[in-house]
């Protein structure tokens, strides 16, 4: 047993921990025995001998590298890695290595107060000490966020920001002179000015913006945006630049474009839409073929690369659709007026013009800058009524540009629908995966309060537009990606790519659906797997387990993203696919428009690395926007259910976790959680593989998809949390 200065004894474990921490905190340095003993105050002979023995073991473990007979350094090849830190409120933090290897546990004491999403460097703990691999953060390379949203608490001496996410070990302290007039209870956006270090455990910050009083609808929606680092205001200089753009179309503009102003053209969008990205034109040609024009707002004509408007659009990368508002990518003057393909107004477009036979086979096509004039602005509901042969007058007030359509228009809409159905049929025959997901929607009053909650299902009118947009996106991608001569490299283009499903997750899905009596193939070609998935979707249609199976199947799917390195789109079964059809709300579409124009004019291939960086940024921003959109839905859902606390509903189990069961109310599709502690008197084990909880004593099972009767216990809008308890049987 060794002794430390002051007579305190140290055992082997304590000496090992001291050495381990010392080397991890100095990962790039070599130390002699003398330096090590001095730094760690190992000043007795037995303690020094014990330390030397332990370092020898650490070298055998590959934790240390022996530089000479009397010096060591950390083995950074096997013990130091870079990656992303994931913080959990329960303390089970983890490190996700950049090389794609398995996540590693990081104890709170070894986290260096890293926050969720931070890029960090870690050192691995010595392996002989524990069987479980464990990591220690040795450096924070890049902070994921510098700003945070929370509620202010202002005391006499100091002020603090309390965050709903509960992600900090310590509060953010705000000097009173940095409060910007904020008072207790205000929601505020705060920027960190001092991160924790060896001398300071707390975070220090300053208020950037006071969002307003908690509970106010505008404040809460802006807080969601601010929480994700998303903009909730439009910069004045960008608005000013947009206001200077002339709306008039000149004779010179028309002279260099194909003129479609006399061809029947319409837009079909949600009834509350204002930014009309796309329009369809249709006419029958003398040769009997149908000419269908997919006309897309010519944003790149107005937004020049490198301009202040372009830089802001690039930074945002996407419009954000919260429950009660749109945060546009472009200033309102552009997205809702100049670029928007509004009815009875001449507009500039970039168009893919198809010649199709009755079976929707492409006989000819070309890409052209055009000028169009939309004859009719339809809402999806109106077109659906036409396709179903009902009266076309919608029950809700029609949007401007709407109104009853003529018999000739009905013929055109039905012809477009007929062609779209042929395209859809061919797509599924070719191996596209069927996922018709329902979307949760709210009707809200003028104060933003939700008054109705329902699911929107995609109908033929939606699918009509979808098919022609898919066709245009695929066709322009093929025109660049498919090179005609062997040996030629395709020019740079941002593609929308989607990888094959995760084989392990597919196997989990196969094992899961067997319990419901379904069979599924997980091996073979891409086509065989997608065909098997589609058969599964068809077979479970209308059954109680349908939504459940769709959810588990979606988990097996990879996320689609943008890249200049094309691998095709698995879900759509397209070898080449891009985004061309929504430049008002997606920056990649604007990038694609610019490159296609450049290549049409004989330009050389664009810089691949530059465009790959932009693709990565757009993919990241898309994910962040989706998270904010989900949070706004969650907030409105909890707010809506706040009116029903104490009431009972029929529901089904929509999710199983080790801490409880998620239940979705059958009537309105709102989802809440029954905590493990609120389940009936038994201890439940979580069976992750079979998506169920099983009672140890009574063996009662809670299975994904089971019907259940619940009572609404709490609706906490601040935490966006809906709590249920089991109703009395």
List keywords for this structure.
18 helices; alpha+beta; 36 strands; five-stranded antiparallel β-sheet
Global mean pLDDT: 88
Number of helices: 18
Task: Please tally the β strands and state the result.
Answer: 36
Low-confidence stretches: 391-401
Through-space gap between termini: 63 Å
Determine the strand fraction and express it as a percent band: 25-35%
Rg (C-alpha, Å) = 30 Å
Class by alpha and beta content = alpha+beta
Strand order of the biggest β-sheet: 16-23-22-19-18-17-24
Structure description:
The chain is built from 18 helices and 36 strands. The chain is α+β, with helices and mostly antiparallel strands and 729 residues long. The strands form ten sheets. A seven-stranded mixed sheet has the order 16-23-22-19-18-17-24. Strands 8-7-6-9-10 form a five-stranded antiparallel sheet. The relative contact order is 0.07.
Explain the layout of strands and helices.
Blueprint: E1 2-3, E2 9-10, H1 12-25, E3 30-32, H2 33-40, H3 45-60, E4 64-68, E5 71-74, H4 76-79, E6 80-86, E7 93-97, E8 104-106, E9 119-124, E10 135-142, E11 147-154, E12 159-162, E13 172-174, E14 186-194, E15 203-213, H5 217-227, H6 236-243, H7 251-255, E16 258-259, E17 265-269, E18 278-284, E19 290-297, H8 299-302, H9 308-316, E20 320-322, E21 325-327, H10 332-338, E22 346-356, E23 362-373, E24 376-379, H11 380-387, H12 407-429, E25 439-444, E26 450-456, H13 460-481, E27 495-497, H14 503-514, H15 526-539, H16 546-556, E28 561-563, H17 587-600, H18 608-641, E29 648-657, E30 660-665, E31 671-675, E32 684-687, E33 692-695, E34 701-703, E35 707-716, E36 721-726
Helix pairs in contact: 1-3, 5-18, 12-13, 14-16
